[in-house]
Specification:
Layout (H helix, E strand, L loop, with lengths): L3 H17 L13 H7 L18 H4 L13 H13 L9 E2 L1 E2 L16 E3 L8 E8 L7 E11 L8 E11 L2 E2 L5 E7 L11 E11 L4 E8 L7 E6 L9 E5 L6 E2 L13 E2 L1 E5 L2 H8 L1
Parallel strand pairs: 1-8
Antiparallel strand pairs: 2-9, 3-11, 4-10, 4-12, 5-9, 5-11, 5-15, 6-7, 6-8, 6-10, 11-14, 12-13
Length: 291
């Protein structure tokens, strides 16, 4: 006779080891060496190079890229701009100076001013250099070889110094404006510069070794550090009877040349001419030397 109770008991005993028992014996405590313990410590996360990280869309907005070292831009435009800035800058230790001699007469120079300044053009003392140019027309010269340039200087005070180091510079004309770089420069120094417009300024003659100017229009002027606290200015003629001669200027932070005629600068109003004169070599002498 089938005993249901015995069969049920036997079935429970058969199922319990596989389906009902989940407890396990605790694992044995391993013996860990010092070396193994060190290896088991979490390692520091390897630093991912910045250029390999996923792009953070906010970095550009917050300017974080600006604080990273930048690779110099070697595009032709940037290289040309750097060369131009270097060429325009005044060297910290200029080459041997040719002394600018006081020369109020500046004999042989065409009349471009009446000899009496009404004001002066300058730059803020913080500028490392500035350039003032006036247009030069070869048709007004006896020859295209220039032996001397006379520059009229004045300053605001004589508390610190009365001498200025500067360069006489020549630029070609490009579409009515000076070219980017000078084609000739002559370093010099002028001393005993008078103070104030009422002093009348003083012309200083600078030998320029017969530099040849282009046919037609070109530009001549000065490049100089304005100086602080003594500020130096190029004399300017505002007399109505003086012929209007275009002028241009720029300083280290300028993007390009700024024309004086038509400028909104109040100091440029009624401009007639920068007091910068040129003495050309007599044409007979030029013909003899060319042979």
């Amino acid at each position: 006779m089938f005993d249901f109770r015995l069969a049920l008991a036997a079935g429970l005993l058969f199922l319990l080891p596989t389906a009902g028992c989940t407890a396990q014996a605790p694992p044995e405590s391993p013996t860990t060496t010092a070396t193994e313990a060190a290896e088991e410590k979490p390692r520091a996360k390897a630093r991912v190079p910045r250029n390999e990280r996923p792009k953070n869309p906010y970095e550009e907005d917050f300017g974080l890229d600006a604080i990273q070292p930048e690779t110099p831009d070697t595009s032709p435009a940037k290289v040309a701009a750097r060369k131009q800035a270097a060429a325009l800058a005044i060297p910290e230790e200029p080459v041997a100076f040719r002394r600018a001699v006081p020369d109020d007469a500046c004999v042989g120079a065409p009349t471009v001013d009446d000899g009496v300044p009404e004001t002066g053009y300058g730059f803020v003392p913080s500028a490392s250099f500035g350039i003032h140019l006036r247009r030069l027309d070869s048709s007004t010269l006896v020859s295209r070889r220039i032996d001397k340039v006379c520059v009229c200087w004045l300053q605001t005070n004589r508390l610190e110094k009365d001498a200025i180091d500067f360069e006489v510079v020549f630029f070609e004309d490009e579409a009515g404006r000076p070219s980017n770089l000078p084609y000739a420069t002559f370093s010099t120094r002028a001393g005993a510069v008078p103070a104030g417009v009422d002093s009348g300024g003083r012309f200083y003659g600078v030998p320029v070794d017969g530099v040849e100017v282009p046919e037609g229009a070109s530009w001549v002027g000065v490049r100089y550090p304005p100086g602080d606290p003594s500020r130096f200015f190029v004399c300017v003629d505002r007399s109505p009877d003086t012929e209007l001669i275009p002028a241009a200027q720029r300083e280290e932070q300028s993007r390009g040349w700024s024309p004086v005629v038509g400028s909104r600068d109040a100091n440029h109003q009624n401009h007639r001419s920068l007091m910068i004169r040129t003495v050309a070599r007599p044409s007979a002498t030029e013909d003899t030397e060319d042979r």
